[in-house]
Amino acid sequence: MLLRGRLVRLRAIESSDFETWRSWINRPDVMEGMDRAVIATAAQHKRYVETAVADDRAVFLAVETLEAERLSGIVWLWDVDHRHRRAEVRIVIGDPEARGRGFGTDALEALATYAFGTLRLRKLYAYIHASNEASRRAFERAGFALEVTLEREAYRNGCETDVHRMRRFADERHD
Ligand SMILES: CC(C)(COP(=O)(O)OP(=O)(O)OC[C@H]1O[C@@H](n2cnc3c(N)ncnc32)[C@H](O)[C@@H]1OP(=O)(O)O)[C@@H](O)C(=O)NCCC(=O)NCCS
After folding, report:
1. Given this model, what pLDDT does residue 174 score?
2. Under a CB-based contact definition with an 8 Å cutoff, are residues 76 and 23 in contact?
3. Mutation choice for ligand 1 from 30, 70, 99, 101, CB with most ligand atoms inside 8 A
4. With a 6 A CB cut-off, is 132 part of the ligand 1 pocket?
5. Whose CA is nearest to atom 13 of ligand 1?
6. What is the pLDDT of residue 156?
7. CA end-to-end span of the chain, whole Å?
8. pLDDT of amino acid 55
9. Which of 33, 97, 117, 124 stands 20 to 30 A from 135 (CA)?
10. Nearest to residue 75, comparing CAs of 121, 137, 9?
11. What DSSP character marks residue 98?
């Protein structure tokens, strides 16, 4: 599968992506953004990815920038529910040089086009920690709006934090 955005393209995950992906998710800033608590070993990550990618309730895609044609992130649909026609969206732009250049926003746009078009979903949603301004901005720019704030939903480093749930509907106009 290949999906083309304005700045990125999304393609199927390959086993050669696994180690780059793992190096991102073990970085402190990414762990914080994605609410990960433990370092993933190579074996754990391989096991997780092989199982998750094969799961028919998930769609994992590699994000490559059009300019450098380099793996820069992963974006995925999680808990795809064809009966209710909804799915959760998750993303990591792991390459530090690729951050803040609109690639995350564009990957979310391309994924939404696929989810609403090919998969015929009607609602996408994402959970974002209140401290994760970059993620909230990227989702907003990709047409997501705040649905609800889950108060004191998470507990990290001795502090309670709110978690925002953002949503985008297929039939809402987004420019
Ligand atoms: C969240 C993430 C996917 C965004 O990807 P990105 O390619 O950097 O995002 P974009 O460049 O498309 O847009 C980022 C927006 O956030 C803003 N931003 C970037 N860093 C920021 C920061 N530290 N604080 C506030 N805003 C920030 C940018 O200015 C931009 O907004 P603007 O267009 O209004 O200026 C990326 O930062 C990431 O992978 N983070 C770690 C993992 C994570 O948090 N995943 C999401 C879990 S819900």
Report:
1. 77
2. no
3. 99
4. yes
5. 138
6. 86
7. 25
8. 95
9. 117
10. 9
11. G
Task: Give DSSP secondary structure letters for 45-72.
Answer: HHHHHHHHHH-TT-EEEEEEETTT--EE
**Residue 76, strand partner residues:** 60, 90
pTM, two decimals, is 0.96
Q: How does DSSP assign 114-162, residue by residue?
A: HHHTTS---EEEEEEETT-HHHHHHHHHTT-EEEEEEEEEEEETTEEEE
pLDDT in the model for residue 1? 76
Q: Which class would CATH give 2-125?
A: alpha beta
Are 2 and 10 in contact by the 8 Å Cβ rule? The answer is yes
What is residue 159's predicted lDDT score, i.e. its pLDDT? 93
Mean pLDDT by runs of 10 across the 175 residues of the chain is: 94 94 94 92 94 94 94 97 98 95 98 97 98 97 98 93 98 83
